[in-house]
Amino acid sequence: MFLLMHHKKSVGAVLKQPDTSIVLHLIAFHSRTLRYHEKNYAITELECLAIIYDLDKFYYYLHDQKFIIHTDHAALVWLKNVKNFRGRLFRWSLKLSMYDYEIRYLKGSTNIGTDMFSRHPVAHRLQHSSHLLDIKEIKTHQKNDNRCGPKYNEINDVIVIKKKNLHKIIIPFSLRLKLLNQAHEQFGLPGVQKMLNLISLQYYWPNFTTDISEFVKHCMVCQLKVPD
């Protein structure tokens, strides 16, 4: 399930996956502020922009998968069936035609998942770990790491493991320190538990709890924050 959000200053989305009991679990989320020229877009164009941008970000999850886009903009419900778009809407509609999706209207007051970006500054600032490492870089390093072997699964050429009904990306040894550095800096130097919670939403590797703990313990800035 793909939940879409748009508000006055940014676009973003929440990606959720139902488990076997149809309970939704967070997979990833992100947002970005509107660029100067985008602020002149009409509301329908902004919503389309959000969809296109989010499909690019979540490509490796959604490519060749059937999914649902929930939006609080009712006009987008008919987006898939319109054939006479012009300009950028036409270009975007061509890109959308590559995906197998359904658009459903979700009343704004019930669109809680995405609404957190406009109402929760911490969530907005963090921006989920989908931005920490480039997926192409992960694929390349996975291919060169024999520890990312047949015991794991693959989704769109990305090696993953299923944990609690959620697929998480296996981080090869050569990228672990880079991921930890990126996460620690981007998330505002979090403690062990917070960093563990944020990284584990999307990523996994054997003994990653120990690695995160050791990494934080050896961060000089973090140690200065610990009271004597």
TrEMBL record:
Phylogenetic lineage: Eukaryota, Metazoa, Ecdysozoa, Arthropoda, Chelicerata
Sequence ranges assigned to domain Reverse transcriptase RNase H-like in this UniProt record: 8-99
Gene expressing this chain: TY3B-G
Name of the top EC class for this enzyme: transferase
Top-level lineage group: Eukaryota
Recorded GO MF terms: endonuclease activity; hydrolase activity; RNA-directed DNA polymerase activity
Protein EC: 2.7.7.49
Protein name, entry field: RNA-directed DNA polymerase
Record has Nucleotidyltransferase as a keyword: yes
Domain Integrase zinc-binding: 171-224
Pfam entry (one): Integrase_H2C2
Species in which this protein is naturally found: Trichonephila clavipes
Keywords, ordered alphabetically: Endonuclease, Hydrolase, Nuclease, Nucleotidyltransferase, RNA-directed DNA polymerase, Transferase
